[in-house]
Amino acid sequence: MVYAFAGWVFLLLAANAILLLLGGWYYKTRIIGIFCHYFLLILTLAALVVTHKFRYREQGQLAAMSTMPSRTLNSTLYDVNWTYQDDANFIEKIWVWELVTFFICLVTASFGCFKVWNRTDVRDSQVRSTLAKSASDQELLVA
Questions:
Q1: How many domains does the chain have?
Q2: 51 domain-assigned
Q3: What's 112's DSSP letter?
Q4: Model pLDDT for residues 34-93, shown as the tens digit of each residue
Q5: pTM above 0.70, yes or no
Q6: If 0-12 CB within 10 Å is exposed, 13-18 middle and 19+ buried, where does residue 77 land?
């Protein structure tokens, strides 16, 4: 359950990062990415709490001490190279990556508002048309 939840959170974060990167050129993807970023920040916090809870509750601590195999190769055969201790170590690594990702998302929460990689003077079509209209209005006022 922890693997699946963390995996989905990381996949959603990756998809959102792509939206924010495309937001340098497309206004709509930037807006969608900004809104999703805050939702994913909360989802990352939930994944962080769930992972920590599952790993450090009594059942998780007892499982972390077990040297019994935890992975099956088929319906009757266990993989003796992967134990519950290995699962516990992997879950700790997932938790560290979730913590790092949470802080990165927290710090970069408003970066999607800015067009970082698109350095042209002309911005989005909505802004371009608004600027053109305001420039023509100012010319009429001066004349």
A1: 1
A2: yes
A3: G
A4: 888 888 888 888 888 888 888 787 877 787 777 777 777 787 787 778 787 888 888 888
A5: no
A6: exposed
In a domain, 70, yes or no: yes
Looking at residue 14, its amino acid is A
Token digits of residue 107:
């710090």
Indicate the residue type of 142: V
The span from the CA of 19 to the CA of 29, in Å, is: 5
Coil, strand or helix: which one is 94? helix
Q: What is the DSSP annotation of 34-93?
A: HHHHHHHHHHHHHHHHHHHHHHHSHHHHHHHH--SEEEESSSS-EEEEEEHHHHHHHHHH
